[in-house]
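Q: I'm writing up a methods section and want to include an example of the input and output format. Could you take the sequence below and give the corresponding predicted structure tokens, formatted cleanly so I can copy it straight into the document?
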Amino acid sequence: MAAISAAEKARALEQCEVDLTNVMDRMAFLSLGGGDEEEEGGAGAVPSDSGAGAGAGLIDVFVMHLAGSLTMDDATARAAGFLQAFGASVAAASRAERDAAQRQNATLKKAFLVLHAQHKAAKAANGELLRQLEECQGRMRTLEMDNYALSTYLKRTLPQGGSTMGRFLPEVF
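A: Here is the clean output for your methods example:
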């Protein structure tokens, strides 16, 4: 394995610090309920002020946590433990949001069922009204036909003058 120069080590550490800062900022931003990076201005965008402030504080805690490391293995173990704890915190927040969304979904389902029942009842009432209307229209047609038949009968049976005064029709009485 080739030896790494001091300049390459410094550049690698600087890059790691920048990447770690971005990762920590993003993780803190996500745990605070921020939006997607694309919405905030693309990859590598700085999160909102609350996310950036929280990320900076989180980085300070992370750095202080690692500062007590004596070896690289100890630092790696501390970093892994810190990230696991942070991941558990983010997962708990995510579960809480999921549970809230499930409660909201259940409420919306209940509201939909109530509205569906109301719609069904209104449809049944409208159906009954339509049935009654058709029944009335049928009666009206029957009355109109009876009226027409009666007027036709009267026209045929009445004398040309059309008056029934003094004369009673035996079929009627």
